[in-house]
């Protein structure tokens, strides 16, 4: 009789229904969005930093130079896109590791990718908001003429271009402590932006800076935003997209290795 009786697996061995898996992913995304919305001291500087810079240099000091306004729209968009990925992952991961929250999340009965997807989604939303704000300032105040296809390209670059910097922020978050994370990440963020030509066009920078600019992922993101607004038509954008995808995979692999070893 025992051979023909059905075998009852323990509840922990049963696979989670797809509906519950989807619900777990959505719950994690919702919690991440609510957490950042309830921390305006963190989310507002991250989303408004580049818009204030563009308002000053692209509108108020520009004196109606259409090419300069278009170039600065692309470069400050790249600058703003980087922030949500770098700080949204780097600072929060460092703080959560110090506080033991990451260990707690690992023990919860949730899909292992929900934590990562929640932060990625929040970073993509924040980057899209930054892009929309800059597009509004560029078109309404700086009078940058953009077609609907260029606007769509900017939104696509903003939403997807943040992902390599999510991976970079994730990797840096495994290296630093929570209290010092914002300052240390700024030591990466600000020099990388300057050396990539996001603040000043590369022809205005020294020759040595121009030679080494392509080593930075922010340089390749800037080439995509320039192409989106119609200022980099002499070169195909796909090589820069592939380079950014390579950066994303490399930093994600390094971050995953460190998290497996050190938590």
Can you characterise this structure?
The protein has 263 residues and is mainly α. The protein has one domain (18-262). It contains 11 helices and no strands. The chain has helices at 18-37, 40-60, 66-99, 101-107, 114-140, 148-161, 163-173, 181-195, 207-212, 217-228, 238-262.
Number of helices: 11
Q: Give me the count of strands.
A: 0
Broad structural category: mainly alpha
Radius of gyration: 21 Å
Kindly give the count of domains. Answer: 1
Unreliable parts? 1-13
> How helix-rich are the residues, as a percent range?
over 70%
Q: Would you list the SSEs in sequence order as H and E?
A: HHHHHHHHHHH
Gross morphology: globular
Q: Give the mean pLDDT.
A: 84
What percentage of amino acids are in beta strands? under 5%
C-alpha termini separation: 48 Å
- Characterize the largest beta sheet: strand count, sense, and whether it forms a barrel: none
Which structural traits does this protein have?
263 residues; mainly alpha; 0% strand; globular; disordered N terminus
Give the structure's gist in a few sentences.
With 263 residues, this protein is mainly alpha-helical. The chain has helices at residues 18-37, 40-60, 66-99, 101-107, 114-140, 148-161, 163-173, 181-195, 207-212, 217-228, 238-262.
Helix/strand layout:
Blueprint (H helix, E strand, L loop, with lengths): L17 H20 L2 H21 L5 H34 L1 H7 L6 H27 L7 H14 L1 H11 L7 H15 L11 H6 L4 H12 L9 H25 L1
Helix pairs in contact: 1-5, 2-3, 2-5, 3-5, 3-6, 3-7, 3-8, 3-10, 5-6, 6-10, 7-11, 10-11
């Amino acid at each position: 009789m025992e051979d023909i009786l059905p075998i009852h697996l323990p509840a922990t061995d049963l696979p989670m229904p797809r509906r519950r898996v989807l619900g777990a992913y959505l719950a994690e995304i919702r919690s991440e969005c609510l957490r950042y919305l309830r921390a305006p001291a963190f989310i507002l500087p991250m989303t408004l930093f580049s818009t204030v810079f563009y308002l000053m240099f692209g509108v108020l000091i520009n004196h109606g130079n259409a090419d300069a306004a278009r170039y600065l729209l692309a470069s400050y968009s790249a600058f703003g896109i980087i922030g949500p990925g770098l700080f949204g992952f780097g600072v929060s991961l460092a703080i959560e590791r110090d506080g033991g929250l990451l260990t707690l999340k690992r023990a919860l009965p949730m899909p292992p990718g929900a934590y990562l997807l929640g932060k990625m989604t929040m970073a993509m939303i924040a980057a899209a908001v930054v892009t929309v704000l800059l597009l509004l300032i560029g078109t309404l105040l700086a009078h940058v003429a953009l077609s609907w296809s260029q606007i769509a390209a900017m939104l696509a670059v903003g939403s997807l271009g943040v992902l390599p910097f999510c991976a970079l922020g994730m990797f840096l978050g495994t290296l630093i402590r929570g209290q010092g994370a914002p300052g240390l990440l700024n030591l990466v963020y600000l020099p990388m932006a300057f050396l990539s030509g996001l603040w000043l066009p590369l022809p205005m920078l020294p020759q040595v800076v121009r030679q080494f600019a392509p080593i930075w992922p922010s340089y390749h993101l800037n080439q995509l935003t320039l192409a989106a607004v119609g200022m980099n038509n002499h070169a195909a954008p796909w090589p820069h997209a592939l380079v950014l995808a390579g950066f994303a995979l490399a930093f994600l692999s390094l971050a995953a290795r460190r998290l497996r070893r050190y938590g």
